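Lab notebook: predicted structure, single chain.

Context: the supervisor wants predicted structures on file for every construct in the current expression panel, including those that have not yet been purified. This is the next one on the list. No modifications to the sequence; it matches the entry in the shared construct table.
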Amino acid sequence: MSTLSVKHLLGIKNLQKEDIELIFNTADNFKEVINRPIRKVPSLRDITVANLFFENSTRTKLSFELAEKRLSADTLNFSAASSSVNKGETLVDTVNNILAMKVDMLVMRHPDAGAATFLSNHIDVPIVNAGDGAHEHPTQALLDAYSIREKLGSVEGKKVVIVGDILHSRVALSNIFCLQKLGAEVKVCGLSTLMPKYIESLGVGYEPSLMKALEWCDVANMLRIQLERQDTKFFPSKKEYSMMYGLNKERLDSISKQITVMHPGPINRGVEITSDVADSKQSIILQQVENGVAIRMAVLYLLANSIKK
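Prediction complete. Output recorded below exactly as produced.
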């Protein structure tokens, strides 16, 4: 199998296990590329990719741009803030105007859940969902699972706890789907007010105690509080949240084994994780960032195989 079973990467839910393994194996090759003196390959020469970001982004946007440049693609960057969307133009009209300029692929982040899926029903070119509201963020989940595989040898059989604001997190949902497809056992941990009511229907355990969750897991993925998606307060204060669910060195050192610590970024240092943990040897946060470029190169390369020139 050298092509994905899907035309678009809209979410992990749509992927088969074989798709994920193919992305990982392809990323292995691209990781070797980005660590050599000449970090470029001509794989997407003559392919034009438009990055459509209707929501703020730093890591994801830069990671996709760098992945595209490493593959020798031509890139077009779109900012909603300075676009005709503000004049009332529809999403489909905006994208069709961009495609009329002979664009071959789209990478899109949008504040509304389902935006990428909706768009995929109206256009023919491959779409990579770079995050849609509180729904999915597939490339983040792929790079997280890939980083676990790199650190621990495999994902299968590993115990992973996702800590924090599960209710508003697209990272959490995509991670749950991805880790389960690869054979990991997943639990979530955090305030009950930040847990979706349907969480246990996904086959995920809920552990309200951070210390019990840390003792159980091999990997702790610490999520930030998604204040920008909250229309009401779900806890009294950041300080009180940190006292209950913040990961600090004292807590990390008090458990009976060494665990791996992850974070999708951006980090709120001193809230969900302290600097001495984020910068410790148990943290693979910067490796996640590096792996993000290789994973996104792999996704773009594999989806480009479906483009008929």
